[in-house]
Amino acid sequence: MNLFFALMFYVATALFVVGLVRKIVDFARTPAPLLIPTTPAPTTTGGVVLRMAREVVMFESLFKSNLWIWIFAAMFHVGFALVTMRHLRYFPEPVWTWVVLVQPFGLYAGLVMAAGLAGLWARRFLVERIRYISTFSDHLMLALLLLIAVSGLGMKFLVHTDIVAVKTFFLGLMMFDIQPLPDHAGLHVHLFCVALLLIVFPFSKLLHAPGIFFSPSRNQADNPREVRHLAPWAAKLEAKN
Amino acid sequence: MAGPEIKAPAFREYPTIPVMQPGSMAGLKPFVANDKVQEALGFPTQLAENWQDTHDAVIAKMGELLGKYRSLKVYMDACVHCGACTDKCHYFIGTQDPKNMPVARQDLMRSVYRRYFTPAGKLFPALVGARDLTREVLDEWYTYYHQCSECRRCSVFCPYGIDTAEVTMAGRELLASVGYGQKYSNEIIGKVHKIGNNLGLPGPALENTLEGLMEDVKEDTGIDIQYPLDVQGAEVLLVTPSADFFAEPHIESLIGYGKVFHAAGISWTMSSKASEAGNFGMFIGNYDQLRKIAMRVREAALELGVKRIVVGECGHAWRVAYSFWNTLTGVGAGASDPFAIQLQSQLDHRYKQPSHICEFTWDLIQRGAISFDKEANDHRIITFHDSCNVARGSRMGDAPGGQFEIPRSIIHAVANKYVEMRPGTTHEQTFCCGGGGGVLTDDLMELRVKGALPRMETIKQVVDGQGVNFLATICAICKAQFSKVLPFYGFKSSMIGGVHQLVSTAIRLGDK
Question: How many distinct structural domains can be found in chain A?
C-alpha cells in the first residue's frame, strides 16, 4: 500500500507538472493574430492586469451573468484555496507561520467547499439547460472533488487518522524515502482521489485555470489604433506584398 | 417564398428563460455557395467525392487553425460547462433550440476537437463527450454556425471570456475550406474583389447615384451639398457601407455625412475602389479575405492622397477598421512595409486613424464648428440601439466606453427627446438585431425574425411606455434587418434610422 501510494504520487505529480507546463507553453506559443478584447476592455497593460485580477479573484464576468453559479463557484474555489493552504502544513518542517495562521479558516473552508460543490452538482440535475450541456465527465469531476472533500472532512470530524504519520509519509516522499502510511480507508480514498485529480488536471476542463490567463478577449489591451499588433504568421503575408 | 409563413414568437410577459425545444431549428440552413462563388475566393468548389478525403481535410485544417489562433485553442480547452452563457444568446431565446446556446454551439466543434486533438477524447470519447467527425456533424456545423451572428454577447458573460464568434468563424472557415461555403457571404466577398462593394455597384453607377443624391438634397435644402467621388487630394476619405448609397434608411445618414462635411467646410471624398466599409471576410473567419478587402482601403487612401480616413455607420466595418485595420494594413501606427510607411507619413496623426464618423462629428460639435436646430427633431422620440460590433468589439474616442457615449452625445446635441432602453440590454450587454454576422439573407428569414425577439421586447417597452418612434443606430446591417423585421412584431419599419439621419434633420447649413 505504501509503495502503491508513493508511486502513484510520483506519477501524478510528474504528469501534473509536465502536462501543465506543456499546455501552458502551447497556449503561450500560439499566436493571437487579431485584437479581440471584449468590452469593457482596458486600454493599458496595467488595466489588463487589474481586469484579470478581478476575473481570477472575484469572477467578475460570472457575477454579471449568473448569481447562483457565482455563489456556488465562489464557495467552492475560495474553500478549495483555503483548504489547500491548510494542507501545506504536510510539506515543510517546521510549518510556515502563515500556514499555521490559516489552519482554523481552512477547516470551515472544507465545509463551504463541499456545500459549493453540492450546489454546482445540483444544478447539473435540476436546471434543464445545464443538464443538456453536461457530459459524463462533468459529473465525474464533481464527484471526484466532492469525494476528496467528504473523505477529508470525515477524517476531521468522524474517524481521525494519524496525521503525524501522514506528514512523515509526505516528508519521506519528498526525500525519496518511503515511510509507512496509516492504514485508514478514508485516508486512502482521500489520497487516491487527490492523485487522480492531479493526473486529470492537464487533460481536462480544469485547464480553465491556466486558460483564463491566455484568453485573448480578457488579456488584451484595447489599443489597436496606437500600437500595431501583428502575429508572426501574419507578418509573413506582409513580406509577400 | 416557399414554405410556411414565418411568424414572430410572442412577446414574453417577463423575460424569463425559455424552455428548450430540441431540434426546433435543425432544418434551417442557408443556401450553399455554388462552384462559381467558391472558385472566385479560391476555395474548393465542392466537398470531396470521398468522405474520408473531406474528413481528413477538415481535421488537418482544424489543426492548422488551432496553431494559428490562440483564441480557438484556449476556448476549446477552457470551457467548464458552467452554463453562465446558456440564456444569453438572442437566437436561443428566440428559437428555444438548445444548440443555439453558446456553449452548445461551441460543443459542436469542441466534441470533435476532443476526439482528434486531446488524449482524453482519443482514449475515452464517450466519457468526455467526444465524437467522430461524420458527414452529419459537418452538416450540423453548417446549420448552427450559420445561426450565430458573431455578436459576442456570450463572451461578455463567460467567466473565461470564451467568444463563440471565434468558434463560429473557425467553423465557417473550416466549412468553406473544404467546399461547403455559404452562398450569401461568399458571393458578397466575390463582388467586393471584382467590383469594390458588397452590392456590386460599379464606379459609373455609383457616380450616377451620387449625382442624383446631390440633386435631391439641393431640392430639399436649396444648397449645393457635394457627395464627391474619387477626388484627388481631398482631406478626408469616407469609407461607408455600400447600402448607404441607396438603401432606406441608410441613405439618410449618407445625406447627413455630406451635410456635416459641408457645414464644417472640410473637403472629402468617397472612393470607387473602396466603396465598401463592410468586410465579410471577418464573418467567414478568413484572415486572407479580411486582409485583402481591407487592402482596398489602403490602396484608395494612397491613390487619393487623403489625410484622414473616416468610416461611416456600419457595425462590423467599424470593428474591422478600429480593431483590425492597423494589423491588416498598417493604417494606425507601427507598420514597417513601404506602403504602410507611405500611408503613415501621408496621414494626419493629430486625428485618430481611422476615425468613426461619430468621432468626427462629435469633434466638430465640441469645437463649435457645426450647430443645430434641435427642435427640428422634436417630432421624434428617440432611443439608441447599440450595435454588437461597435459595442463589444471596438471603441471610440480616448476613453473606454466612448463607443457608447459619443453616439449618445451626438443625439443629445441634435435632438431633445431621448429615452434609454432597459438596462442590461444596452451598452456591452446589448442584444443583437438578429441579422448580423453574415445571416442577413432571405434564406435565413426565420432565424432573423425569431432572433430579434429580445431586442423587440425592449423596444416594445419604450414604445408603449415612453412613446418612442425612432430607433437610432449606427450599423447598416441593423438598419436593413430592423426595416424588414420590425413589422413582424407590429412596429412600423420606418422607425429605424441612423444617428446621422438625426444630424441631417437638425444641422444648420447656412450662416451659423
Answer: 1
